[in-house]
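Sharing a chain and its predicted structure for anyone who wants a worked example. Both blocks are below, sequence first, tokens second.
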Amino acid sequence: MQKPSTIAIDGPAACGKTTVGKLLAQKLGYRFIDTGAMYRALTWEALRLGVDIDDEAALSDLADRTKMEIPAGKDDGMLVNGRYISRELRSPEVDFGVSPVAKVAGVRRVLVRQQRSMAKEGGIVMVGRDIGTNVLLDADLKIYLDVSVEAQAKRRYKEMVEQGEKADYDDILAGLVRRDRIDSKRSVNPLVKAANAVVIETDKFDAKGVLNEILKVIEGK
């Protein structure tokens, strides 16, 4: 197949899509965009400002007023109204609040518009939960990374321990079950597989293994 200019990667939390997306973007020389980080950034801003994450009108207004940028060469963080944040995006408070924030129609409308604008020039790998089914319907290649919730929890636990953070496997597992349930059942752009997506079961591979599977698809092997 011809080298795809826009690549959409979807999947549940902790399925490895961010790590794999970065590796793929580096391999292809593409720009990497983590849309989940945008929802996390807005959640962090809401918490910082004391905005009630159950107040949909206030969250939609905040999304309209919040400028988010991905600094060149710093795809682990984001500029939020000029303030650079990175580790804050993975805090337990943001973990708990991001799904309720992301299900708000007004929030999604604003951020999806920004995401589509980012993708206009092509040469991008965009990861999230509704990229192939909503944000980039015409993406040249759609990938869906599937994974058991137990494997999700193990990955997130390992990440937190490696970063020196306090981690409890059972709490992480319960949180992921809750998030996946919210994201799969939300009324606006729920987490589902695109009909034309290539599905990769990530339980079977490490990140480099998943990358190799995607490269095989791109190379038509």
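Comments welcome. The beta strands are 6-10, 31-34, 68-69, 78-80, 83-85, 124-128, 141-146, 198-201.
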